[in-house]
Amino acid sequence: MPKEKSLSAGTVNFYDMKYLAVFFCLIFSVNAHSQTLQLHFDPRHTLDPAHNPANFPAIYFEYFKSAKDTSGSFFMKTETDLNGQNHNIGKFFIQISQSFRFWKPKVYLQLQYSGGMGIAEPGSYGYYITNAFSAGPVYPFQWKGGWFSTSLSYTYNAFKKPSHDVLYSLYWGNGFWNYKFEFSGDIELYTLNKNLGDAYTAGIKGKQVCIFAEPQLWFKVHNGFALGSKINTYYHVLISANVLQVYPTIAARFKFN
User: Fold this and answer.
1) CA-CA distance, 27 to 83, in Å (whole number)?
2) 175-192 confidence digits (pLDDT tens)
3) Which end of the chain, N or C, is less surrounded by CB atoms within 10 Å?
């Protein structure tokens, strides 16, 4: 679950970034069953300069293993935004989830973690993407040739003032014309405390509903290589105003097994 919502100021030192870089290299060396590497150019400054200081490249790596009997599915996603000075790494994010079951009905229990860190520009101060731990039922199914996975979870967001929340997620994927064209992605609706325990949100009460979505469109060029776009969509994620932010990317993807 890509919790870019969970941004809170913190201290990020050189050793933290070094360990993350080592971990990121190890991810790419894993002998996985199904993997995708995506390279994106995000022109959000051009589209919305009032809320974004710069355009930037981004690298995504995803690994997915589908459910088999009781073992459930495993999903891992990393995102590296090169939005720092001179296009150095400005943000690193990781999401890991595993589902399993010990019963006959094909409704699984899913456990999930997400978190990360980054550097904010201008000002160059470090921040954490706050740890989030989720648990709840997930139901994978197929419909009209596509695959889907829907889940409803309890989430603990580890802000200074912890937030106990509800998360609904829907993942989908489908191919057309013998998978020459693919439409996939996910959407997440979740609650979050308005008061996160910091000076900026002090005195605010209640919950807010947030939306994060990233539908993807891909056109296969040759074998595992495709061109397309990820349409990053935010509501109450990057800013607190009641504004829907939509930022499509220009992207290339390589899928391998």
Assistant:
1) 21
2) 999 989 999 999 999 999
3) C
| pLDDT the model gives residue 122 | 66
> What contacts 152, CB < 8 A, 6 or more positions away?
136, 137, 166, 167, 168
> How confident is residue 123, by pLDDT bands cut at 50, 70 and 90?
low
Domain 7-256 of CATH type 1.10.10.10: no
Percentage of the chain lying above the pLDDT 70 cut = 85
SS3 (DSSP) at 105? coil
Sequence ranges of the domains in the chain: 7-256
CB atoms within 10 A of CB 11: 10
Q: Furthest-apart CA pair in the chain: how many Å?
A: 55
Strands 244-248 and 56-65: unpaired
Nearest by Cα to 40 from 7, 82, 1, 78:
82
